[in-house]
TrEMBL record:
It comes from Desulfosporosinus acididurans. It comes from the Bacteria. This is High-affinity branched-chain amino acid transport ATP-binding protein LivF. Residues 6-238 form the ABC transporter domain. GO terms for biological process: L-amino acid transport. The lineage of its organism: Bacteria, Bacillati, Bacillota, Clostridia, Eubacteriales. It holds the Pfam family ABC_tran. Belongs to the ABC transporter superfamily. The keyword ATP-binding applies. The keyword Nucleotide-binding applies. One of its GO terms (molecular function) is ATP hydrolysis activity.
């Protein structure tokens, strides 16, 4: 039994000569929500891309439930149950809602399990059930975000990486999405949540890290971070 879903040790990532991650170390315990905060260009998306194998780390170690995945290919990492929902809700825009979900579960050989998972996604997102035949690209931004998360849920991930799920959404929809993230977590999904919206992320998360220009500058329980003056001034606009 490994209680840590994810461990990063001194991870460094470059884009050519740009040193985007300068030794990032963090942990995501199994069953928790951990948030990674930081302003534009801090390296949050780069951290997620490095974890999911879309970019190769140049140094450091990434462990997924005790297994070193630093050198693994992205498709292998996905098959281990580490699922990345990227920024900008990349769904299949020309396909219907239900077809998007079916594709999310295409690795499932058991047809009845796939149907069960789709039903579960529909229970969680009744709006998607009502729109199951609608073409993805015609959904609202919030519905597309729900579909992106729903598609990720099709594989019953062991760790979900969520990149700015609140981006560009109206406050009420953001509340909806956050409620669903909380529900997923209470059903047992471990989550690493990247957010620019520190207020909502810290409400949801158990623990948080703050990234600035490729380095972690602060970490702590989310209740502590919420009260920390450096956080309230820099990220909560107070
Ligand atoms: P945002 O919230 O704006 O998405 P972020 O914290 O996710 O910011 P990253 O997208 O990880 O930040 O970017 C970190 C740094 O790496 C930035 O300076 C960015 O310009 C740079 N960067 C990101 N992608 C590339 C790329 N493909 N080529 C070169 N530099 C890149």
């Amino acid at each position: 039994m490994n209680d840590l879903a994810l461990v990063l040790q001194n991870v460094e990532t470059f884009y050519g000569k740009i040193h985007a991650l300068k030794g990032v170390s963090l942990e995501v315990p199994k069953g928790k929500i951990v948030t990674l905060l930081g302003s534009n260009g801090a390296g949050k998306t780069t951290t997620l891309k490095t974890i999911s194998g879309l970019i190769q780390a140049s140094a450091g170690k990434i462990e997924f439930y005790g297994r070193d995945i630093s050198k693994e290919k992205a498709h292998k990492i996905v098959s281990m149950g580490l699922i990345h929902v990227p920024e900008g809700r990349r769904i299949f825009k020309d396909l219907a809602v239900k077809e998007n979900l079916e594709l999310g579960g295409f690795t499932l050989k058991d047809e009845s399990l796939r149907r069960k998972r789709i039903e579960h996604v529909f229970e969680m997102f009744p709006r998607l059930k009502d729109r199951q035949k609608q073409i993805g690209g015609t959904l609202s931004g919030g519905e597309q975000q729900m579909l992106a998360i729903g598609r990720a849920m099709m594989t019953d991930p062991k760790l979900l990486l969520l990149d700015e799920p609140s981006m560009g959404l109206a406050p009420l929809i953001v509340q909806d999405i956050m409620r669903i993230i909380k529900q997923l977590n209470s059903e047992g999904t471990t989550i690493l949540l990247v957010e620019q919206n520190a207020k909502i992320a810290l409400k949801l998360a158990d623990y948080g890290y703050v990234l600035e220009t490729g380095e972690l500058v602060m970490e702590g329980d989310s209740t502590e971070l919420r009260q920390d003056e450096r956080i309230t001034k820099a990220y909560l606009g107070e």
